[in-house]
Amino acid sequence: MEKEKEQLLVGEEVATRPQPRAVRRRAAIWALGATALLMLFLHGTIKRAALGCFQHRKINGGILSSQGLMEAESAEVCTTPACVHAASELLYNLSPEYKDLDACTNFEELVCGGWKERHDLRPDQGDAFTGTIMSENSQLLLRHILEASYPKDSSHSEFSPVRLLATEASADEDNFKKLQDGYNACLDEATIKEAGTKPLEEILSKIRELYKVDEPCPSGEDIAKTVLYLSELGVTALVTAGTGADDKDPDKVVVSVSAPWRIGLPSKERYEDDDLLNGYEGTIGRIFQHMHLTNQPIPRKVIQLEQKLAAACPDQEDMFDVTNQLPKDTSADNVINMTPDYLKKLAGILEETDRDVLLGYFYWKTIQAYGPYIEADVLKPLKEWNNFLAGKDKDAEEDRWRTCVDHVDGGLGWILSRFFIEKAFSEKAKNFGDQIVSDIKTEFIEKLKKTEWMEKEVQDLGIDKVHNIVQKIGYPTKSPDIMNPTKLAKYYSDVSVSPKTFFANAVTMARSEITKSWAAYGKPVDRNEWGMTVPTVNAYYNPPGNEIVFPAGIMQFPVFDVNVPEYLSYGAFGSVSGHELSHAFDSTGRHYDQTGNYTDWWTEHTVREFEKRADCFVEQYHNYTIDGPDGKPLHVNGKLTLGENIADAGGVSAAFSAWKKRAAEKKNQNLPGLEHFTQEQLFFVNYANWWCGASRKETAVNRIYTDPHAPKWARVLGTMANSREFKEAFSCKVKEPVCELW
């Protein structure tokens, strides 16, 4: 339950990977390096001459004053390898016509035109963006770690194995072997193919034992046993259940029950597409027939059952609306019913469903969950169907090593995190990240003080809330302490891994996670836990914990770099930080006080003023559209994406203010080859660079229905339209934001 309410920076697409382009980038860096040295030599002559010739210079639709030009020219040019690399990255992604485009109306194309020209989606990708490339760069590093021997002689960083005591070094090596065994088992496709569907059939056989079609059970006890068995394997059927902090008592762990977040198709709206349903039926039918599971009419009836379940589920925007999730009269004995209407309807649906249909449904949920761990021709229709839903090539397959890195990250993620940190993070980076986040908190407090529509008592409580926000940077040092090999070994002591049993490894990993979750029930909330492993390129705000969390995975180039001018890191990572902090005051986060308790701490007047401004964001983003499945415009759901859009606007504003204060204390250097832009403008260029991306139509449609984040391009255009600082930096004619909260 707690993770479901976490306010993420991006959706699940951050796990996708990028295309290598080292050769082209290396050539660009070399060429730019020579240019940078020449510019440095000529800096004191040509630039001063240009200054004498022009009093004003046109900058992307606006005018840069002579004073602004003088300030830009007076800064030194950074020609270190890190700066040359950063400059080449931005230039590489800019539109070739960036000098002629109007930033005030077409900023996404200006910043990302080159990115789109040079990044085709691979056959196995539904979409990709800059975060995807970061994730895949990390994945490549992890591959190198996993395919090498234990780094016992490494002295790369303060986290290196050579710094461990003898007892800890032994545990560290054992942990690495477990990690490597899990990875190698996944790579061993020959053994996986030899096993065929037998591991999956064993689970299906257990389902038949628990839910006997020929022995009706009016009490529904056998349904409960079957659902419980599947949940222990990580398979969601009929309901979702889990543990997490009680919203109204955030130090207490409770059980929550709700409708599934996904029934079978990507969203409930897709069950209205008859052509899609025909293809879905064919997929289930072929698999059931080849696996000799049940008679032929069952697949259509299974889909009809899913249609009923989908119709009973809340709309997606309501699933994300905490005010709808927490009715006052549905808690009993530390169990919270998050979707009472759905559970009432579910009882009626089950009463009118034949037992053989329900058995077929249980089969199908299991196949959907565990089919990807099987290599057999009978399950090829499942791969083809999943590819079709995402708009990918029919037979597209991800590189096996990518799948296997994901596999160990999902099941042994904290061990993998320990070795990732050793190669990709430093104390210097952690300290810089802490500085940025602390600066953002300071600036947000200043914004709250100036927010006239907030009454004073709410302002004071809000300031208190910001002071109390816990910032977690880089990696966890408790629950578990990933730098303590002995504690890591204990954390994964219940995970048995063999280099020859891929499917069994997946099952034991899933069971371990579920066991840990349920073991927390009845205990105080562990506020030291993290909801993301360290290599993850994402971040989140957790309302009951009142915490913002930034794994080291997102603190990488080009979003974050300690060795480049600060306006780049503040523009991208700083805006990420501000985004997560802003979630504490968005349409969801505002309901939680400084201790993480769900309560009404805003006055009626302040709520009315907030909702008036929030409605502006709903309408603004609703006007953005993509091509729908029927060729007609499909509007962004302004209500579903409201919290994220508010967070984007608040994050950029707080980050810009924080950077300006730092820059006033210590002047930033310029980047070579980017003299067309001021430092203020480059702040926004690097912000938008983070969202450069591309998507297949089918994937984009699915995200409109399910993702609380607007499309990447809309996040650039909408956020810039709402940024007074952006409009001033680019001298736009209209300085007033379209929508504004903070």
Automatic annotation (TrEMBL):
Family statement: Belongs to the peptidase M13 family.
Gene Ontology terms describing biological process: protein processing
Entry annotated with the keyword Hydrolase: yes
Domain Peptidase M13 C-terminal positions: 538-737
Gene3D superfamilies (UniProt xref): Collagenase (Catalytic Domain), Neutral endopeptidase , domain2
Cofactor(s) essential for the protein: Zn(2+)
PANTHER family the record matches: FI17812P1-RELATED (PTHR11733:SF167), ZINC METALLOPROTEASE FAMILY M13 NEPRILYSIN-RELATED (PTHR11733)
Domain Peptidase M13 N-terminal: 104-324, 326-476
Keyword field: Hydrolase, Membrane, Metal-binding, Metalloprotease, Protease, Transmembrane, Transmembrane helix, Zinc
Name of the protein described by the UniProt record: Endothelin-converting enzyme 1
GO cellular component: plasma membrane
InterPro entries: MetalloPept_cat_dom_sf, Peptidase_M13, Peptidase_M13_C, Peptidase_M13_dom_2, Peptidase_M13_N
A single GO molecular function term of this UniProt record: metalloendopeptidase activity
Transmembrane segments: 27-46
Record carries keyword Cytoplasm: no
